[in-house]
Specification:
This protein is α/β, with parallel strands linked by helices and 446 residues long. It contains 12 helices and 17 strands. It has a 10-stranded mixed β-sheet with strand order 8-9-10-11-12-13-14-15-16-17. Helix 10 links the parallel strand 9 and strand 10. The longest helix is centred in the first third of the chain and has 14 residues. The chain is globular.
């Protein structure tokens, strides 16, 4: 809390605070933790409290959490120039710097973190009755339940022998968020629960339907068995994020009308062959994630507004045919692409902007391009599970912005980068953090 404070009076205020004099019961929140929360800037407090609706030991990911913060209007910009996704990442890093979140991974444009049990208890305490979760549910006999705005449904509630709506949900009215954060392998088929979500809660801003087995969505709102979207889904002109799975060969035309969409994910679409003109029409897209689409053969021309592209386990996808003019990418991630032998040439068009590249489980990748050295803003390079990759390209020392290099499960490349002995060691001595097979082997401060 005080690591950001250098003034003597700030330290004195903490030392002399009356909170240390309060009598503390066995289950009370630690005064030190409460002071850490009190010291948060006002714009971070609702973001922190919101996290109480997730279960303990939950691994938070920015790609899921930040859109939820956006839906609640938690992200505030004084200048208006910062993208909300970037603002959300900045909020997470600020809370991490105050030790209320525990960072697991910071990949520049995506973050994973955890909350200690005691910190999670603090979040429940400060959220008071706005959040209802398996950790705390306001009693239905109290008028306090009328103030609940965010709800998470526990796995136990989903696995009841009797298919019904949990009683606590029937007591609520002005709910903004409904999540199913930890279904595990559970396939959700509780139709009465889904019907209640759509009909009862007209103020909903975020509804997570991942894990549901659905063939059709109710028309009132506008997973592998989903065959169609309601025709009026195009009326959701303010929808910002859509995670989609379909058994069709093409994307529904209705998606073209979602002109405010910023984050689009396509998962486990085994029959999908093309994204067609649908994705081309989404000119405000910032993030595209495509995974486990085994029959997808090509991508359309992508919008210049795109900042992050993630592709995984799409065996037939020909990345080389994508074309030119994909400018402005900040992050590129590719994994489980066994046919890939070289990075797509069009990444060069993002030379002035590209900050992060992740290459994972591309077993036939043998060489990295020489133009890699021209990515002057590249901060992070992660290479994992590429056993045929022999060496790093010449000119690695030109990557003056590179802060992190991570190499795992790449036997030939690991040997080439062996500390002080490998032929590529001299190429990476200036990198601040070098991790090889899980071991931090070098620092520019050495």
């Amino acid at each position: 809390m005080l690591c950001l404070k250098r003034e003597q009076h700030a330290w004195s205020e903490v030392r002399d605070s009356d909170i240390w004099k309060l009598k503390q019961e066995h289950n009370d929140i630690s005064p030190a933790l409460k002071l850490s929360y009190d010291a948060l800037p006002p714009y971070l407090k609702p973001c922190f409290a919101f996290c109480s609706i997730f279960p303990k030991d939950y691994i938070f990911r920015s790609t899921d959490l930040v859109p939820l913060w956006m839906a609640q209007g938690f992200l505030q910009s004084s200048t208006g120039s910062q993208e909300p996704e970037e603002m959300g990442l900045d909020y997470i890093r600020q809370i991490c710097s105050r030790s209320l979140f525990q960072m697991r991974e910071d990949s520049i444009h995506s973050i994973a973190f955890e909350m200690h049990h005691l910190v999670h208890d603090l979040a429940i305490s400060v959220a008071q009755v706005e959040c209802s979760s398996e950790n705390f549910r306001p009693p239905s006999t109290s008028i306090l339940h009328k103030k609940v705005r965010h709800v998470s449904i526990s796995r136990d509630d989903l696995c009841m022998k009797e298919v019904r709506v949990p009683d606590y949900l029937l007591q609520l009215k002005k709910v903004w968020t409904i999540l199913f954060p930890n279904p595990g392998d559970t396939v959700i088929t509780n139709k009465p629960l889904l019907k209640t979500c759509f009909k009862r809660f007209k103020y909903l801003r975020a509804l997570d339907l991942s894990g549901w087995s659905l063939e059709k969505l109710p028309s009132s709102i506008g997973c592998e068995n989903l065959k169609g979207l309601p025709k009026d889904i195009g009326s959701l002109i303010n929808l910002r994020k859509l995670v989609f799975t379909t058994s069709r060969m093409e994307l529904p035309e209705e998606i073209k009308s979602l002109t405010s969409l910023r984050h689009f994910e396509v998962h486990s679409c085994s029959k999908l062959e093309s994204l067609g003109e649908v994705v081309q029409s989404l000119t405000n897209l910032r993030i595209i994630v495509i995974s486990n689409c085994g029959n997808l053969e090509s991508l359309p021309q992508l919008s210049s507004s795109l900042k992050a592209l993630v592709i995984s386990d799409c065996e037939k996808l020909d990345l080389m045919s994508l074309g030119e003019d994909i400018e402005g990418l900040l992050s590129f991630s590719i994994s489980k692409m066994s046919i890939l032998e070289a990075l797509p040439h069009w990444l060069q068009d993002s030379k002035p902007s590209l900050q992060s590249i992740r290459i994972e489980n591309c077993v036939h990748l043998k060489v990295l391009p020489e133009w890699l050295q021209s990515l002057m803003k590249l901060q992070q390079l992660v290479i994992e599970g590429c056993p045929e990759l022999l060496a790093l390209p010449e000119g690695m020392h030109h990557l003056v912005a590179l802060k992190e290099l991570k190499i795992n499960d790449c036997s030939k490349l690991v040997e080439s980068c062996r500390r002080k002995e490998g032929q590529d060691w001299s190429k990476i001595t200036r990198v601040a953090k070098v991790t090889i097979d899980g071991e931090n082997i070098a620092s520019s401060d050495d």
